[in-house]
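Re: the request from the purification team.
They wanted to know what the chain is likely to look like in 3D before they choose a buffer screen. I agreed to run a prediction and write the result into the notebook, where they can find it.
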Amino acid sequence: MKTLLIISLFCTLLACSQSNKNPNPEFKKYAGFQSEYIGPRNVEIMLPPNYDPNKKYDVLYMHDGQNVFDPFTAFYNNEWGVDEAVADLMKTGEIRPVIVVAVWNTEIRFQEYMPNKPVETIQELRKNGGLMNDLLSDEYLKFLVYELKPFVDENFSTINKPENTFIMGSSMGGLISCYALCEYPEVFGGAGCVSTHWPALDGVFLPYVKNNLPDPSNHKFYFDYGTATLDSLYEPYQIQVDQMMRENNYEEDVNWMTRKFEGAKHNEIDWRERVHIPLKFLLKP
């Protein structure tokens, strides 16, 4: 009788512990997150399934945050489905547990995502009327590094090391992700650059990349592109970038990956189809 009582009690406790587990991601939303560097914007933070404040987690920062999780806020109601992808990959053990921070864009997206450097070339373009407004990407990165990241690290259970901190985006978001890793290699350990818009301002950013790639021994880059719509312009530029990676001692499929997707278009539907690839590359267990 006593043995049966102990077994019954154990089963009850086990059932309670399992019921307390959350198999779905949890979302924290911060409307109009303030900054001293740039204008306010919404920020959404996804805590992974079964988030435990007593454990430590990697962190992935993503641009164009309204397109990351929610079809109701996404462009044409097409979102990346990062929450579903993370949950599935964590369940199969293909990625490390990760907190995803989705930073919404604003109406001045180009100014915030177009890299400020190389400074001399950008200034020349402005002088000749090629730029209507000042670029704000340096200020945007200061917001991420000096304001948003400290907030995330203070309020959530994160691993505050570059090898556990990543940044990712598509199109201009891919461009600013590459820039972030080059400018702040002591903060970010890897960048996911999806359908990177290298042709911006006639490819002015490429020489900067060649001269400012971080140490390949502890940094990772993921690049990809499709062959349809806007992505059809990207291959010649990406070939140049791939050569830069080799010249800077990056090893393909080890600390650098480039993927070409035949027929893929420049939109969230196609990025959703392959988002698991950069997630698995950057967050490999």
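For the purification team: Residues 23-282 form a domain with the Rossmann fold fold (CATH 3.40.50.1820).
Please add any questions underneath this entry.
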